[in-house]
Amino acid sequence: MPQYTYQAVDSKNKLVKGNLPARNLEDAEGQLREMGLYPISVQAEPARKSGGFGGRKVTRKDVLSFTIQLHLMFTAGLPLLQSLQNIAEQEKNPKFQEVILDICKKIETTGSFSEAIASHPKVFPPFYLGAVRAGEAGGTLAEILEELAGSLEKQDELQSELKQALMYPMMIMCVMTAVSGFYAFYLMPKMMALVLEMGAPLPFYTKVVWFTVSTLKNLAIPLIIFFFLGLIGLFIYRKTESGAYTLSYLKIKIPLFGAVIQKSILCTFSHYLSLLLRSGFGLLPSLDLIKGTIGNKTIVRSIETIQERIKRGESFADSMKGLPFPGFMITMIALGEQTGRVAEQLGLINGYFEKDVKRTTKKVLTLLEPMILVTFGGISAVILLSTFFPLYNAMGHVK
Q1: What's the Cα-to-Cα distance from 333 to each of 170, 264, 326, 349, 355, rounded to whole Å?
Q2: How confident is the model over 313-349, as pLDDT tens digits?
C-alpha cells in the first residue's frame, strides 16, 4: 500500500509530522482526521526504484503465495477487494505489491478481477486468467482459486524436485572438470619439464597427450572467444521463429534428458487443460490459453495442429495422432470422449506423468553419475599415467 508523508496540527495547534499507509489521498486525510489531526500537507512518497532485492521479479512462488492467501481470505468471507488490499499491505516484494495495488484500482473501476489481472500477462499466465474468468462467470471463484493454488503448488514441487535431482550430478561434473583441468594445465607442464630436463625419452602416448594439452592451452583465448560468440549466436537464433522451433525440438530429443523434458511438458499440458475444462472452458479456448504456458515451440505447434484438426471435425483423440503425444494418452482421451469425462481422464494422465517424470529422472541420474565419473576419471587417469610413467622411467635412468 502507498505511503503518504504528512504535516498536520493537533488540538493544541502543535505541528505533527510523519507518514502512514493509505489507499489514496482522501483515505490518508480521513485517517488523519480520525486521529484528531488537521492535515496541512499530505503527499505520496515517490515509488521505490527497482534494483537490488526490492526490484526483483515476480516469481512463481510469489503468485502461489498470493493465490493461497486470496483463497483463504475470500473463503473466510472477506470481499475480494478487501482481501487484495490486505495481501498488498503484507507483500514483501515491492514490484508485486505495485501489481496487486494496480489490480485493486482496476477492480474499483471495472469490477472485474479477470480484467484486472489481464493487464499483467507477465505475472499471471494465460491459464490463470482463463480459470479466473471461468470462475467469475460461473460464480465459483473460491473453488477456482483453490484449484489454482493446488496446481501452482504441484508444478512448483515438481520443478524443485527436478532441480534438486540435477544438482548433484552437476556438482560432480564441476568438481571433476576442475580436477582434470588442474592435472592437465598445471601439474602436467611442471612434471613434463622435469622429465625433459632429465633427458628421458617420451613414449608415443605421452607425446599425444602432451600435444593435445599444449594445443588446448595455446588456443585457450580463441576457444573462449569462440565459445561466447557461439552462445551469442545461439541466443540470437533462439529469438527467431525457426530457431525457437528447432531448438525446442532438439531439447526433447536430447539423449537421456529429452524424455524427462518431454514428459514434464506433457504433465503441464494435461494438468492445466484438465483444470480449464473443469472450470467450464471449452476445449478450443482452453488449448488457446495453454499455448502461452507450455514454453516449447514444438508442443505449441502440435497444439495448433490439434486445433485445426478439431475445427475440421476430428475428435480430440484423433487430432493428436502423429504428434508428440504417447499412444496411451490418446487412448485415455478417446475413452474420456466416449464417456464425457475428458477432464477427469486428463487428471489421471497428469498423475501418471508426475510419477513417470520422477521415475525417469531417477533412471537418468543412475546412468549419468557413473558416466560422469568414468569419463572425467578416465581423462584424469590418462593425463596422470602419461606423465608419471615417463617420470618413473627417467628416475630409473638417473639411478
Answers
A1: 38, 18, 11, 9, 19
A2: 999 999 999 998 999 999 999 999 998 889 999 989 9
Model confidence pLDDT, tens digit, residues 34-81: 887 766 566 666 544 433 334 468 888 888 888 888 888 878 888 888
Q: In CATH, what is the architecture of 153-399? A: Up-down Bundle (1.20)
What value, to the nearest 5°, has the Cα angle with vertex 304 and ends 298 and 307? 145
Distances in Å between the alpha carbon of 331 and those of 230, 258, 309, 317?
43, 23, 17, 7
C-alpha cell of residue 8: 498536520
Between CA 331 and CA 348 the distance in angstroms is: 12
Residues 6+ apart with CB under 8 A from 194: 391, 394
Condensed to tens digits (0 to 9), the pLDDT of residues 213-258 reads 888 888 888 989 999 999 999 889 888 888 888 888 888 888 878 8
> Around Cβ 385, how many Cβ atoms within 10 Å?
13
The helix (run of H) or strand (run of E) holding residue 230 is helix 220-239
What single-letter DSSP state applies at residue 330? H
The whole-angstrom separation of Cα 114 and Cα 133 is 5
Q: b or e along 235-272 (b: 16 or more beta carbons within 10 Å of the residue's beta carbon)?
A: eeeeeeeebbeebbbebbeeeebebbbbbbbbbbbbbb
What amino acid occupies position 364? V
